[in-house]
Amino acid sequence: MTSRVTRPAVRLVAISDQPLSVGEVLDSLDDAASGGLVLFVGRVRDHDHGQGVTGLSYSAHPSALERLQDVCARIADEYDVTGVAAVHRVGDLDIGDLAVVVATTAGHRGSSFEASRALIDTLKAEVPIWKHQRFTDGSEEWVGSP
């Protein structure tokens, strides 16, 4: 008889003012049951809507971590996944810095692709984290703020 320990699907959820680690996300999802792992990394780019970007900062509402946990739990419930992880950066970021890392694992790649897409899209739509962009012409813009 073989026994198997079942791990909770939500493995890592964090909002951090420190640089993000893709390795930490991958390590949190390491298990023998997962044949597919889909990872999305969002980085700060040097442009947006035709304007040059010099940098940005992210601010999070005090409820953001709880909302991110809820989003991860929903994705774990709605999709056939074995693992879910999501981390988002706050504070000042430079061009090329990692802003968000999300990943899911599943027995097969299809489920993981679908879940990861839903995870990043739902995070962006529902988690109260706001982006303040600074442009090369001296202007600035808040994105996602109420």
From TrEMBL:
Question: What Pfam families has UniProt attached to this entry?
Answer: MoaE
Transferase as a keyword of this entry, yes or no, is yes
Pathway assignment reads:
Cofactor biosynthesis; molybdopterin biosynthesis
Q: Which GO terms describe its molecular function?
A: molybdopterin synthase activity
Q: Does the keyword GTP-binding apply?
A: no
Instruction: List GO BP terms, alphabetically.
Output: Mo-molybdopterin cofactor biosynthetic process
Instruction: Give the residue range of the signal peptide.
Output: none
Which UniProt keywords are given for this protein, alphabetically ordered? Answer: Molybdenum cofactor biosynthesis, Transferase
Q: Which InterPro entries does the annotation name?
A: MoaE_sf (IPR036563), Mopterin_biosynth_MoaE (IPR003448)
Q: What is this protein called?
A: Molybdopterin synthase catalytic subunit 1
